[in-house]
Amino acid sequence: MEETILKDVEKVKNRTLKERLFRGVLALQHLIAMFGATVLVPFLTGLDPSIALFTAGVGTLIFHFCTKGKVPVFLGSSFAFIPVIIAVSEKYGDLRFAQGGMFVAGLIYVLSSLLVKKIGVEKIRAILPAQVVGPMIMVIGLNLLPTAFDMASGHWILAAITLGTTLIIKYFGKGFAKQIAILFGVAVGYIVALIIGFVDTAAISEAAIVSIPTFTLPKFNIGAILIIAPVVLAVFMEHIGDITTNGQVVGKNFIEDPGLNRTLLGDGLATIFASLVGGPANTTYGENTGVLAVTKNYDPSILRITAVLAIVLSFVAKFGAAIRTVPQPVMGGISLMLFTMIAIIGPKTIKREKVKFDWKNIIVMVTILILGIGGSFIESRFGIFVGIRITESVAISGLSFAAIVGVVLNMILNGIKIK
Description:
3% strand; two-stranded antiparallel sheet; 4 strands; mainly alpha; 20 helices
């Protein structure tokens, strides 16, 4: 990572003002993509949104340090921890106990990274072939789409204008304009929303220019730890899916280089840091992977610029308030495209790896898709839980459960043995 930083410094010295502005705009685009989801978690759990933004930025830099600056990801607030943070808050009346639980969860991630390093990458690759990874990627994108639809449903016309503008620029634009299609789309959607009176700007005028977040230290309680720590079991496979998806977008195998052990370490240390100052647990963000897929610009240093912007903006309350006034339908329109781009990578992975469509692989792929996509529908429609119940408040379902079943099923049907 030290060599990467030195190279970044040298490159910055040689860049023209135009190049620096171009990279700054790309970083801002990533910031807008992740902002809504990152601050939503603290809003739902009672944590400080400014601290969440701060820990997302610092966590991203920690992740890039651990992964030698090779993986172009942004770490934001993890939705998987929402129910257990709320459960701890209601039971113990103090969010600092939730911080203690997230500290232990991050520590488990770090220990998992050491275990993965000992097992070896080849064994990881053996249990994660394309017939498993491809459907996992599809599940990630398709499971996110309902969220995008919910966001867009507040004003479908605004969502359509935002999405339409972005698609027109993406497919008919040239050069610099094409790479900032998302920013163009959000800007046009926001302007239209202002014109029709869909934006409440009161929060901007009321916000202070500079505000220092109230950092808090964690408290530890065995009960709170037992509620929160098991979530790691649920998000482990999600992490593998996110890193694999990011690698497929970029065209590199990040599971092998810099290694799954390093990405797990980065995620774990970022979550430990967040827990020490009052932020939510961190995770890699599909929104930013979607931006990579749209722009085709995979430079990890741009995500590091985004991280620095997030840190700075955590202290600039007025700008943060302005970002929060971007209407949900505008972000919903953009998200429809971003999440669809992620889902499409799944079939591309299966095609590129030339997966053999025999009955064994078909069963594996269909099982992952049914469990990953249909599980939540079955539970909501028929009240039948599809997954593994760990505790009253912690369960493995959705992508995590589908991935576990898919991996085991593939090993059984295809006779894969890990020695």
